[in-house]
Amino acid sequence: MAERIDWIALTIFLFFFALVTVMGFFAARWKSGPVSAHLDEWGLGGRQFGTWITWFLVGGDFYTAYTVIAVPALVYAVGAYGFFALPYTIIVYPFVFAVMPVLWKTAHANGYVTAADVVHGIYNSRGLELAVAITGMVATMPYIALQLIGMGVVIKAMGLSGELPIVAAFIVLALYTYSSGLRAPALIAFVKDIMIYIVVLVAVVVVPAKLGGYGAVFAAANEAFTAKGGDTGLILKPSQMLPYATLAFGSALAAFMYPHTLTGIFASKSADTIRKNAILLPAYTLLLGLIALLGYMAYAANIKVTSNNDVVPVLFKVLFPSWFAGFAFSAIASARWCRPR
Amino acid sequence: MWILLLLPFIGLLWVPFYNSLEPALFGFPFFYWYQLAWVPISSLLIWLVYRSRTPDEAP
């Protein structure tokens, strides 16, 4: 990867980073209620988010840098097997529709803010409550690590090196989350998700057009996997089918037990808000499926990377002008994480 | 109606059914367009169940 700094991309990136930061601090005042001292206000934004805010918030929390960087990287590396994220993020919604409104009602009626509160309330066990809280924190660590990796690869793609830019960005994000609570990610999600939608729609139309259509994209990937051998390919090896299904199923059952997704559920205004979101959130899944194919487009574009996570940033850098690459990188990097607990 | 919610699980977890390249559609091998097609289908199924249920009482 080139070590020269891409000033145009960097300027656009910094502009959007500044915009998101200002919004993050401003968010504290957005829709603030009379009970600002209560944990409900900070942790759940006052439990008042309607269908659209919840859609952006949960969509932004659930589909993060993992979606944009790690899924295409895995598809690039192994092919069909990496696609398990698609069935996973489809079958999760019938489950959410059936289960989460029930959980919401319990949480709402008793004022529970976290999964640990619910468990303590129902089973009256401090030990169980602690176990759930710790599991939640530990399980979220890889997600936070992925956000940092995602931010790291785009910063690297713009020619900056070293850990310092990531540390600085992390501190800024932590500060406004601390000051604004859940309102910060909810407000920023509007900007970030619209940016991501623009980037992906442009990418899935323009990139195949430049590379000779989706047929050519799949053919190039097939050729690369045939040369590579092993457990790779456009379809699954017989031994991969069962793991593919169980990965999708297990991930779907776990997805809304994570603190960052459950928070979005508890912050909803009503059980019906959650039901409507189970119908509307799959729009993000469609996006995920198309983003995953960026991994194959890299083969059609003859891109070679040393680290698989660099696939998407390098693809954007090669195929798009600097200003659009900068816009895309800001969209990826502004994928932010849930509140620190 | 609630049984409709099980269809996406069957359609997507029975992997041998769709693990093939043909028939392709718009350049997409079957494996890919079949799974992508389940996104709008699942939304539709959930919507049908949503419509059929009795609404919550007003809080």
Describe the protein's architecture and organization:
The complex is a heterodimer of chains A (341) and B (59). Chain A has 341 residues and is mainly alpha-helical. Chain A has one domain (7-333). Chain A has 17 helices and no strands. In chain A, helix 3 (51-62) packs antiparallel against helix 12 (259-266) and helix 5 (85-110) packs antiparallel against helix 14 (282-292). Chain B contains 2 helices and no strands. The radius of gyration of chain B is 15 Å and the shape is elongated. Chain B has one domain (2-52). The interface between A and B is large, with 38 and 35 residues.
Helix content of chain B: 40-55%
> Major β-sheet of chain A, in short?
none
Mean pLDDT of chain A: 82
Multimeric state of these chains? heterodimer
Could you give a short description of this structure?
The complex is a heterodimer of chains A (341) and B (59). With 341 residues, chain A is mostly helical.
